[in-house]
């Protein structure tokens, strides 16, 4: 309780001005101790008046805020440290991803150089084997028992030639010769090349092409090769029986087109998805794949400033999603 002595010491005017409604609630003010230490306090008080309405005193409660302020400061520091830790973790993840990309790029470059060297060394003798095998088969009668053996040599040498071609395609990875290209047209042309193959006779192909899509700036030949690799992989995963859905659309609020290719084949185990686009990685039986098709596809999409990802469940099939930038007006 505080009161003036015979009104000789009036209450401080600025303090009394706070009592507009005869009370103060949780007013933060600083007190000073005898030693001069500043002590933050919260003050709640009410005035006491006489019968004439004059202020005769003030009753109040003050609470020391030092511990509260300390706890708040500790909490703020902890939150700042947490935010800093999250920022460091994010920066570390970005650095790790960049390092992985650099290692991957260096590895691809080394593999490409090796592949190109091996392919060139093999190509010349392989060409000689094919030429002389064809000459031999021309000299043999149709009923000659040796003819089947020579034809087998031609078949296997031709397969080797195809592998060498893929090695060279992977090693060279030429920059695309871009021009305004309709993605629906590219997909239609790709499907026209495969739909009559025996592997596709029992596969139902469904097309959901969004009409009037903007063009992309792309190399039609390279894009056909990329889509062909994915579609052939899907057909092989379904073992020639199943459903293939190919869809196109423009992503909302984006400058990208999206192409999805979905099959209901055997699916891809999670541990294989991460390695799917690595060169020479394959789950096919020996002699049934080089492991270069999807690596070449990923390279083509990347050189078109696009992206490719895969989602799959074992036993349910897989979906390849490709995103390619639309043609920029004025370019």
UniProtKB/TrEMBL annotation:
Residues 78-108 form a coiled coil. Residues 25-77 form the PAC domain. SMART domains: HATPase_c (SM00387), HisKA (SM00388), PAC (SM00086). GO terms for molecular function: phosphorelay sensor kinase activity. Residues 117-328 form the Histidine kinase domain. The keyword Coiled coil applies. InterPro entries: HATPase_C_sf (IPR036890), HATPase_dom (IPR003594), His_kinase_dom (IPR005467), HisK_dim/P_dom (IPR003661), HisK_dim/P_sf (IPR036097), PAC (IPR001610), PAS-assoc_C (IPR000700), PAS-like_dom_sf (IPR035965). Keywords: Coiled coil, Phosphoprotein. This is Histidine kinase domain-containing protein.
């Amino acid at each position: 309780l505080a009161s003036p002595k015979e009104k000789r010491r009036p209450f401080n005017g600025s303090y009394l001005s706070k009592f507009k409604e005869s009370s103060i609630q949780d007013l933060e003010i600083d007190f000073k101790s005898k030693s001069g230490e500043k002590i933050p306090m919260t003050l709640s008080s009410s005035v006491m008046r006489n019968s004439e309405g004059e202020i005769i005193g003030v009753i109040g409660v003050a609470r020391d805020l030092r511990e509260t302020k300390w706890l708040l400061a500790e909490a703020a520091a902890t939150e700042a440290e947490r935010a800093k830790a999250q920022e460091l973790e994010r920066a570390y993840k970005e650095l790790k991803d960049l390092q992985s990309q650099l290692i991957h790029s260096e590895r691809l470059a080394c593999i490409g150089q090796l592949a190109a060297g091996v392919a060139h060394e093999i190509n010349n003798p392989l060409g000689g084997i094919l030429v002389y095998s064809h000459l031999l088969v021309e000299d043999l009668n149709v009923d000659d028992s040796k003819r089947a053996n020579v034809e087998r040599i031609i078949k296997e040498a031709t397969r080797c030639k195809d592998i060498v071609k893929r090695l060279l395609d992977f090693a060279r990875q030429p920059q695309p010769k871009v021009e305004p290209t309709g993605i629906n047209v590219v997909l239609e042309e790709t499907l026209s090349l495969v739909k009559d193959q025996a592997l596709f006779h029992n596969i139902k192909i469904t097309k959901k092409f969004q009409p009037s899509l903007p063009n992309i700036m792309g190399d039609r030949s390279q894009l056909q090769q990329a889509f062909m690799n994915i579609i052939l992989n899907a057909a092989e995963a379904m073992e020639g029986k199943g459903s293939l859905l190919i869809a196109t659309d423009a992503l909302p609020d984006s400058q990208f087109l999206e192409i999805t290719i979905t099959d209901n084949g055997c699916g891809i185990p999670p541990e294989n998805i991460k390695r799917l686009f690595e060169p020479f990685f394959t789950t096919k039986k020996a002699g049934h794949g080089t492991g270069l098709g999807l690596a070449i596809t990923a390279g083509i999409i990347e050189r078109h400033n696009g992206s490719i990802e895969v989602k799959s469940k074992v036993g349910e099939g897989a979906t390849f999603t490709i995103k390619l930038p639309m043609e920029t007006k004025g370019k």
